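quick one, 178 residues, struct below
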Amino acid sequence: MALIAQRKQDVILRDANGFNVTGGRTRHEGVEAEIGWQALPALRLGVAGTYARHRYDFDAAIEGGETIIKGRDINTAPRRLWTTTATWAPRSDWRAALEWRRVGAYFADPTNTRRHPGHVIAHLRLSAQPPSEWRASLEIENLTDARYADRADFTQGDWRYFPARGRSAFVTVAWQRE
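---
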């Protein structure tokens, strides 16, 4: 477990219109934890996450009508981030892992009046390394092909979404001579 306490100054932020805001200050407090459990000889369960507040530490009126107020949450900075993993390794040369990632709700504007609910995504990873120089792996991100936004914000009276990639598969085959 780790405790987080950080203050930043001379921060450069980007407002919703893409303009830089200079001379900012922020503060960050929270906790980060990880726990694992060997449930069965071949099954390991793990949870890792953070709970943290990320806040503005200054006041500013920004062009375009946005207002930053000291003590409010930094928009698009979730307080909760969690990952739960189940790893199955029936042999030393074969492994499968199913991972769930949770990005918690966050404020979508600097005035903290609009909230985005966050999202949960699943990933699958398979890997094999037979007793040879070959190694292979398959990773499937966004296993359920969920439609979600990597980030969302509320600007100029409307929502703006930055869509995440749909289901994606990555295959790796490697050969290494010792």
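The chain is about 0% helix and 65% strand.
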